[in-house]
Design goal:
The chain has helices spanning 14-40, 48-73, 177-190, 192-196; strands at 91-97, 117-121, 149-151, 156-162, 199-204, 209-213, 227-228, 233-236, 248-253, 263-264, 279-282. The protein is an alpha+beta fold. The strands form 2 sheets. Strands 1, 2, 4, 5, 6, 7, 9, 10 and 11 form a 9-stranded antiparallel β-sheet that branches. Strands 3-8 form a two-stranded antiparallel sheet. The chain is globular.
Length: 286
Amino acid sequence: MTAVMTSVYRAPGRGARVLARIRGPVVAVAVPTNVLSALWRLFPSSGIVEDRLRALASLLGLVLIVIAVILIRFGIGRPGHTAPIAPPSQGTWTAIRSPATRVPSHGTHQFAQTWAIDLVHTPDDRPSPAFGGIRRSMAPEEFPSFGMPVYAGGAGQVVAVRDDAPDHRSRNSWSLLPLFAIESLVRGILGARFAFGNVVVIHLDAGGYQVVAHLQRGSAVVAVGQSVAAGERIAACGNSGNSTEPHLHLQLQDDADVSRAVGLPLAFAGSPVPARGESVDWPAPA
C-alpha cells in the first residue's frame, strides 16, 4: 500500500462551521423566492396593496440572492492542516479544476468544495473527447476516465457510501451547456446528495474526511463501518450527479456531512497538486 506522511490536523473555527451550515438553506430559499417573485409580476395587479407586496417580495429575493452569493463566494474561516493523501487513482490524470490554480477551486465554498480538485484520465493511447462544439451527448463509456479505479487516500473508516445514482450521458458540448446549467441549479438547490451523485466518504486516521464523488453506479466495493488502508480500491470513476463528463471529484473536509462541512486544504503524498491543465502520472498502489 502507498505510504502517507503524517501531519498536524487543525479543525476550522466556529465561524466557518456556522457559515457552512447556513449556505445550503439560504441558497435553497433564495432561488425559488426570486423565481416566484418574477412569475407573480406576470399577472395583473389588483391594487396598491398587491403592488407593495410584490415590491417587498422582489426586495426580499434580492437580499437573499446577495446573501447567498456572499456565503458561496466568501467565508473560508480558519483552514486546517491535513495529512497528504495517497493518489486517488493510477495513470495519467489532468486537472480541470484545481486549488493550485485558484481558491475556491470550483468558485464556491458550498458543500466544502473550497480546495476540491476535478481530474480527467488522459492516457496517451486514448484521447478524451474534447469539450466544446455542437454534438449529441455521449455515453460515459466513451470517456477514458469512466471505470478507472478509485483508491482510499489514507487509512481510515468508511462513514458514507452512495452507489445507486445513474451515470448520465455527457454535457461537454456548447449545445448542451444550457441543459447542464439548469441541472446544476436544480441539483444545488436539492442538496449535496444530488450534486455529488455516488460518493464514498472516509474518516481518515490522520484527521479530516476524504470525499470522492461522481462515482460509477454499482462500483463501490466498501461499506459503511469498514476499515480501509491507503491505496485500497474503494470504487470506480463515473458520471453521476452534477458532472459534464466522467471525472474524479476529490476533496477533504472537516465533517462527515458534505452539507455542513468546511473544506480543508488538499495535498498528495509524493506529488504536487496539479494546476488547471497540468497532468500528473500516478503509479498503481504497491
